[in-house]
Amino acid sequence: MLEKIRDGSQSAIAKGILVLVILSFAFAGVSSYLGSSREAPAASVNGEDISKNELEQAFQNEKARMEQQMGEMFAALSADDNYLRSLKQGVLDRLVAEKLMDQTAKRMGLRISDEQIKQAIINEPAFQTDGKFDNDRYLAILSQMGYKTNSFRDMMRVDMTRRQLINGLVGSEFVLPGESTEIAKLQAQTRDVRFQMVDAEPFVAGISVTDEDAKGFYDANQDQFMTPELVSLEYVALNAADLAAAISVSDDEAKSYYDEHQGQYRTAEKRLAAHILVGFGDDEAAAKAKAEALHQQLVSGADFAELAKKESEDTFSGAQGGQLDWFEQGVMDPAFDGALFALQKGQYSEVVKSDFGFHIVKLLDVQGGEQASFESVKDKILAQLKEKQAVDQYYGLHQKLADTSYEVPDSLAEAAKAIGAEVKATELFARDMAPAAVNFPEVLKAAFSDAVLHSGMNSEVVEVAPNSVMVVRVKEHKEAGTQPFEEAKTDIIARLTQEKANEAASAKAQELLSKFNAGEALELEVKAGVARYSRELDPSIVNKAFQMAVGAADTVSLASGYALVVLDKINEASSVDEATQKALASRMASQNTEAAYRALIDSLKANAEISYSAL
Predict the structure, then answer these.
(1) What is the largest CA-CA distance in the chain?
(2) Taking the C-alpha atoms of 272, 275, 280 and 284 in order, what is their torsion angle to the nearest 10 degrees?
(3) Best exposed site among 364, 535, 562, 590 by fewest CB in 10 Å?
(4) Strand partners, 612
């Protein structure tokens, strides 16, 4: 049988079929490569795409910003996938709005010149020292932020163009002096009121709520007695920092390490660079010719600093005679770096080509590396050796923890014993109220997963921080449900009692209102000159007073009871403080501007072709 198959496979028909199969796979592969290599964008705005990579980068930046702003609260929020989806959608909406603004600015012919960008950077306080532009500070901040000068200027150009559009379309919002004055006067009004409070507490003693009343309320309001899903966890934690605390390293060990690694404690040589830059422009050959001509001027005796000021296309270093900053080897573009570290102090290089254009590099000064003494770095070495030993222990124990918790999946006792730790436990808690010891998004996600929650098995090893892991298992689990009536009865009776007491207080307040309207004399408290945001009276009484007409009377609900309120007089403000009026006008203008901006974006969206991909 096998021989027949083998012989058949050698026939012309079989070979023909094989060729067709190979070709079909080949064409399918080419088709897949040509047709599917382009990933679908996150959104398309009037034919311009916002890539998923662009969205992901903006999303990660937004998460980092919110984490810095909100701290641990954001970690708890980010454990909710729905919250993260909502946040990502908000980031995408912002990117769409920015794309619409860029398109509108381009359509309107808005431009930002190099000089405008230069002045904006020079005037930026973050780049100034003692009120003056500091080029070293500027370059250091850009390096810290991960920007190169050209990419930062491009970003500035985009941002300033958007602001130019916003300022032109919505920045013209203003508030008339009469508007702010009248509103300020309204806010500065005071009112003379009379009132009488009716406390609900005295009525409580005469109220009776039966078990039947409470049960009827419970049955009619089941949704108010829903209880969240609860768990209590057992867990074993492993942390390199805890291991390091128990490790001892001697001074002799530290000295030996220092002697063997002295190169690590020598400061790197730094070189102060200057350059003359000629950008590629539209004609690379012409740019190279210009750079070589400038080099020839230097050979002929031209002053480097003066030539840089006149000819360098790096505006900022050019203003400093071409001076850049101190650089360690390996920091700059490889071609630039190689030229700089091949020079002697005071020398300049031949024309060097980098990704940014053609350079003539000059070495202005050198800071030689210095050897740090053992005493100055001893504490650092001790900590480093402790950390190294702790991390070595950590990785060995990490593997033991993973193996043992997997091999004995229904208990953490063996896993804890294997790494010399103890099994700890939490009380019952809801997912959004986790105790600090286990309040990590990754841990909660594992604890509430089906694999752990319902199986009674250990979780996988969960990393909660660098060199810090945890294994958890569910000790007790309570499904979300309805609180039993017997547990809720006491609270229901107290609630119904208070409601009935409030009803009695309301009836008493209505009785007082009827007597007042009938002209009967009442002993009311008097308060003159009550301001809109007064703290001298109950806020409910103040709010009611500023909703009423002169001579009117009404009742208002308080936190515990009711009150009768009578408005006797409105006291108009004779004048308004100038500073208050200006602050109000500024706030009103900001509100108007915000409304105009939102209207602009809504209008652009309404007239644009926008499509979204699934997030």
Answers:
(1) 121
(2) -120
(3) 535
(4) 43
Q: Give the integer Cα–Cα distance in Å for 223 and 225.
A: 5
Query: What are residue 290's DSSP bridge partners?
Result: none
Give, as one character, the DSSP assignment of residue 133: E
Question: How is 74-109 classified by DSSP, letter by letter?
Answer: HHHHTT-HHHHHHHHHHHHHHHHHHHHHHHHHHHTT
Cα 579 from Cα 180, distance rounded (Å): 12
Structure tokens, 213: 């009343």
CB-based contacts of 198, cutoff 8 Å, min separation 6: 505, 508, 509, 512, 561, 562, 563, 564
Phi, psi of 562 (to 5 degrees): -140, 170
Give this prediction's pTM: 0.47
Walk across the sheet containing 610-612 and list its strands: 48-50, 43-45, 610-612
Distance CA 64, CA 61 (A): 5
Instruction: For residue range 221-231, list pLDDT tens digits in order.
Output: 998 898 888 99
- What pLDDT score does 500 carry? 95
Asked if 236 and 421 touch (Cβ cutoff 8 Å), the reply is yes
Classify the phi-psi angles of 324: left when phi > 0, otherwise alpha if psi is within -120 to 50, otherwise beta.
alpha
Q: What is the pLDDT of residues 289-330, one digit of tens each?
A: 999 999 999 999 999 999 999 999 887 788 889 998 888 888
Contact 157, 105 (CB under 8 A): no
Q: Mean pLDDT, to the nearest integer, of 71-99?
A: 83
